[in-house]
Structure to design on (429 residues):
């Protein structure tokens, strides 16, 4: 057994009873209760439809073989093909993937995309693999999950540890199996092989659009508001730059190495360059060093948790002082923290709405590939803004109508849409 597979087995044996999936199901249950869903329908929607676990060997550069463990999980496909990212991360578990697949179902529904939800990934640290090892691992993993993926079944996309190059290898592998090019089999590809303009920054663009509008609706002036971003990666970097372009002052950012703070604002261009050159935030010398925990507790107007799940919990939520928490990551705030933040009067912009820009433009890419007709960047960005604004206003209106937080409103809208699709289709046979 490889180190990765052995580590996975140990983690699963020691996994706590309060899992990521149980939290996702708890959030679903709250929406189902509010909607009065009957038990039989609820039992269908709160469980996963299909999950595939694969263990596969990959030849390393030194000629040895290493066994990797990977997953592809589909939660629900009542509204269309499954859609969701692929994560390459050393701490990935099947339970994480199950929860993330469920979140993708609700995310696609709340922004009215004709998709169901899926997620997948491989337990590995891509930074510890050479480029050739990463390619061989990606292609072998793609072959293993090719049984259930494809443009009309399940369309993967990038996530943590993956990007356009990995998507290109996946698309090429699936195309080799088919005997012809299948660009619509995956999104987040390079534009040279059917990727969409505007895809790389779509999540951050959608997040910044919702954040600015929500602040205005709350009576907060975005001009010169202060911002802290946890996770200065693909999502956090773009979000920070676009919020700064709207007049806000980004005073703190972080990555896995730690964070930096400067009250009069950070040089985002310098920070982006530092990251692109392989550096870490802690290497940035023009600001005070802070920890990720300290960043979460800064007295700022807007906090963007854009790293990984479970960063704000019942244990530390009381120390979060931001007026607006815009969820760039999936599930960065747990239910106990949600209650604490809502009681304090903070505005939490829920992940299934706020960070849906990535899947929205993935949908655009899928449509463009199927039609073999491509849009300019300006058209993509305009369509993204239209979808995000429409979806935000629907969620905001539902929150006002039901007198509930935005997360509750978003879940009620999403679960209702999937429930309606399930009822209309009926249960086979």
């Amino acid at each position: 057994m490889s180190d990765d597979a052995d580590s996975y087995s140990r983690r699963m044996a020691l996994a706590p009873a309060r899992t990521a999936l149980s939290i996702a199901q708890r959030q679903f249950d709250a929406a189902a209760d509010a909607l009065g869903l009957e038990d039989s329908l609820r039992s269908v929607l709160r469980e996963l439809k299909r999950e595939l676990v694969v263990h596969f060997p990959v030849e390393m550069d030194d000629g040895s073989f290493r066994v990797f463990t990977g997953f592809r999980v589909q939660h629900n496909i009542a509204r269309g093909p499954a859609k969701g990212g692929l994560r390459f991360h050393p701490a990935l578990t099947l339970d994480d993937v199950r929860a993330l697949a469920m979140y993708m179902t609700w995310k696609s529904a709340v922004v009215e995309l004709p998709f169901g939800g899926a997620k997948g990934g491989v337990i590995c640290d891509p930074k510890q693999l050479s480029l050739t090892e990463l390619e061989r691992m990606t292609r072998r993993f793609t072959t293993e999950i090719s049984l259930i993926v494809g443009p009309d079944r399940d369309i993967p996309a990038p996530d943590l540890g993956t990007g356009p190059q990995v998507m290109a290898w996946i698309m090429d592998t699936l195309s080799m199996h088919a005997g012809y090019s299948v660009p619509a089999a995956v999104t987040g590809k390079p534009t040279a092989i059917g990727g969409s303009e505007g895809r790389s920054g779509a999540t951050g663009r959608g997040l910044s659009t919702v954040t600015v509008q929500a602040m205005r609706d709350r009576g907060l002036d975005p001009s010169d508001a202060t911002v802290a971003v946890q996770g200065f990666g693909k999502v956090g970097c773009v979000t920070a730059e676009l919020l700064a372009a709207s007049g806000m002052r980004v005073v703190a950012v972080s990555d896995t190495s730690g964070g930096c703070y400067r009250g009069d604002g950070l040089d985002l261009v310098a920070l982006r360059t530092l990251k692109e050159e392989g550096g870490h935030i802690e290497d940035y010398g023009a600001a005070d060093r802070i920890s990720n925990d300290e960043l979460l507790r800064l007295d700022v107007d807007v906090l963007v948790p854009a790293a990984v799940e479970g960063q704000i919990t019942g244990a530390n939520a009381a120390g979060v002082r931001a007026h607006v928490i815009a969820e760039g990551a999936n599930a960065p705030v747990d239910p106990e923290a949600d209650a604490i933040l809502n009681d304090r009067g903070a505005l939490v912009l829920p992940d299934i709405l706020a960070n849906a820009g990535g899947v929205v433009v993935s949908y655009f890419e899928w449509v463009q590939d199927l039609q073999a007709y491509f849009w300019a960047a300006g058209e993509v960005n305009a369509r993204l803004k239209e979808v995000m604004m429409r979806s935000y206003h629907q969620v905001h209106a539902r929150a006002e109508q039901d007198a509930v937080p935005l997360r509750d409103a978003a879940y009620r809208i999403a679960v209702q849409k999937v429930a309606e699709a399930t009822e209309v289709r009926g249960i086979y046979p």
Observations:
- The longest helix spans residues 377-402.
- The radius of gyration is 21 Å.
- The chain has a mean pLDDT of 93.
- The chain is about 45% helix and 15% strand.
